[in-house]
Amino acid sequence: MNFQTAERNIIQEISQTLDGVSPDSINQLIEKIEHADKVFFVGVGRVLLSLEAIAKRLAHLGIKTYVVGQITEPAITSNDLLIVGSGSGESMFPLGIARKAKSFNASIVHIGSNPESTMRQYADLFIRIPVQTKLSQPDEVTSLQPMTSLFEQSLLLLGDSVALMLIEKQNIDMHNLWQFHANLE
Amino acid sequence: MNFQTAERNIIQEISQTLDGVSPDSINQLIEKIEHADKVFFVGVGRVLLSLEAIAKRLAHLGIKTYVVGQITEPAITSNDLLIVGSGSGESMFPLGIARKAKSFNASIVHIGSNPESTMRQYADLFIRIPVQTKLSQPDEVTSLQPMTSLFEQSLLLLGDSVALMLIEKQNIDMHNLWQFHANLE
Amino acid sequence: MNFQTAERNIIQEISQTLDGVSPDSINQLIEKIEHADKVFFVGVGRVLLSLEAIAKRLAHLGIKTYVVGQITEPAITSNDLLIVGSGSGESMFPLGIARKAKSFNASIVHIGSNPESTMRQYADLFIRIPVQTKLSQPDEVTSLQPMTSLFEQSLLLLGDSVALMLIEKQNIDMHNLWQFHANLE
Amino acid sequence: MNFQTAERNIIQEISQTLDGVSPDSINQLIEKIEHADKVFFVGVGRVLLSLEAIAKRLAHLGIKTYVVGQITEPAITSNDLLIVGSGSGESMFPLGIARKAKSFNASIVHIGSNPESTMRQYADLFIRIPVQTKLSQPDEVTSLQPMTSLFEQSLLLLGDSVALMLIEKQNIDMHNLWQFHANLE
């Protein structure tokens, strides 16, 4: 396989996947982000990396974002939002964190692929990224790629789409974004 | 802007960008990865997150990958490869690491957008992701997105394209990949 | 309180605590480390930071160490050792990881303060750092310090004591240690 | 060497080292911490781990602390403090960050062992941890331990001493500290 075939296949997969995400669920996510005092993110592995990239970009837009487990992490309250990234909705660590966040009455959004997961009981909003899971559904995008790459890639671009929508909605001047950006590196 | 417009714009930008990457430079990168004993990655911010995702996926393919600064990081030698991610090729930390790696005779690949950077003197191979930089060039993809999002997104998908190419080239059975995967989370 | 009073109080607390650790349990830990193919570490918060420092130092002695959750983490096997740091032995994440490691028949050492914890069922060896816990025991060292600082400090120095013992036992030439040390920073 | 000999040796080394730190320099550090809007920390390797532990504890006391390179890092300003940990005062990354922080007129404290380093030109305050360096000085504590373990251990306990002093000085109720503590893990 040459590079052009590889990248075009991947982009085609992501495009088909994101076209299958409910625009209404994204609007609800944006509303929750705008109403939250603080936004926390939890996930593991490459999913966590996508969430960290989203947290970093949203922080540049002036949103107070935190990744669960970071060095200086504040307490979560009922005015806050927890965004969980987990394709299966069955990973131990995100489930445990969601359960705790729920006990503090935080709002919880689950971004995943499996709509019938254990996470369901904790989530106020479920955003489905329709990629292949073990229990396949008719509308799922199949992937040439290894493991859950397609989920992780789609998650990153979903988050960056939200950033783009927030910039337009809030009429943010992109030239001023650097004021919230780390200036030491 | 609604979600569909946002994600389609982003995907269009990435697609145009990756189509502008030299397939030959990717083939050279793959050869270098296959010949290296160990592959190190260095970058900062969201670029680092994309590199970490690439390092994680390549590790699943059986490649020994390390991120500069991780808790247990071995010494680099002349049999190793350092992959630097830096759009501008001017960031202090990657430049300093590249200079040190060069002094140990490691091979160095720079993935960036600016072809005339300080990094040029250290890199054995430069892979250009043709996105907008301060010194614009005629072939650069312009972006609606804030900051260097387009570079970071394209970098992740470039790395995942390399993973897909390696899987086909080495005839790797994707069902066996999990043997190299962390099994504790 | 002036600096000298503060540091002397802290050192006095740590000294009393480490004098209460069973030397025999440390000898067993050293034997387990020497017999393991790979050594994994798990913990949260400042306990994790102490474990990361220990993992880093032991790696310099030529031991293959990994922190659960790091970017490139191999699979654990029955030839490996998991070292859990948890004062209470009740933290969700370490408990979940210990349960999984047990299912792969890895050897498990728990370093904690509470001898009657849920972790007990997973641990092949329990090393007690006798500091104040909620259920106090007669031999516990009380502390002027906030939260679980005394546990975290004692854990770091316990690990560094193990490093010192291994250097002498294995007759390691300290001038050669740098060969295993990251040389890029 | 048995465990008791090892830990007592290490504690003796740390005790002698911290007794050699200037109490006046610590008082100045505390004043700078109390007057800063935000406190940033920078270091590499095990020194960074000690700084992260200090940042975490000070955050529990209500101080706004950040580690350079963390996912969501605000911009530094002239009202902020940068604490650099570097024994030699010659490490590339901390030097580069200190230079940048200086250009934003932030206040800079260097905690190190070598008083004649390149860092000197950036630091408003130098706190000396008198441990063995390559250019030895008559008052330095020699160490049985490998590499710079004694510096890293002393740095952690110096920071925890500062935390203890701040608690007394500001009359902080330790039972209330958990309000600033992450409640999700």
Question: Could you give a short description of this structure?
Answer:
4 copies of one chain form a homotetramer. Chain A is of the alpha/beta class and 185 residues long. Helix content of chain A is 43%, strand content 12%.
Overall description:
- The structure is a homotetramer of 185-residue chains.
- Chain A has 185 residues and is an alpha/beta fold.
- The first copy, chain A, has a single domain (18-166), classed as Rossmann fold (3-Layer(aba) Sandwich).
- Helices cover 43% and strands 12% of the residues of chain A.
- Chain A has helices at residues 3-19, 23-35, 45-60, 92-103, 149-169, and strands at 39-42, 65-67, 81-85, 107-112, 125-128.
- Chain A has a 5-stranded parallel beta sheet, with helices on both faces.
- In chain A, strand 3 (81-85), helix 4 (92-103) and strand 4 form a beta-alpha-beta unit.
- In chain A, helix 1 packs across helix 5 (149-169) and helix 3 packs parallel to helix 5.
- The model of chain A has no long low-confidence stretch (mean pLDDT 93).
- Chains in contact: A-B, A-C, A-D, B-C, B-D, C-D.
- Chains C and D meet through helix 1, helix 2, helix 3 and helix 5 of C and helix 1, helix 2, helix 3 and helix 5 of D.
Q: What brief labels describe this structure?
A:
alpha/beta, 185 residues, 5 strands, Rossmann fold, homotetramer, 5 helices
CATH C-level name of chain A: Alpha Beta
Order of helical and strand elements of chain A: HHEHEEHEEH
Q: What is the architecture of chain A at the second tier of CATH?
A: 3-Layer(aba) Sandwich
Give the N-terminus to C-terminus distance of chain A in angstroms.
38 Å
What is the overall pLDDT average of chain A?
93
* Spatial sequence of strands, sheet with the most strands of chain A: 2-1-3-4-5
Helix content of chain A: 40-55%
CATH topology call of chain A: Rossmann fold
CATH superfamily of chain A: Glucose-6-phosphate isomerase like protein, domain 1
For the largest beta-sheet of chain A, the strand count, sense and barrel status come to: 5 strands, parallel
Interface with most residues: A-B, 57 and 57 residues
State the assembly state of the protein chains: homotetramer
Tally of extended strands of chain A? 5
Q: Which structural class should the secondary elements of chain A be placed in?
A: alpha/beta
Radius of gyration of chain A: 16 Å
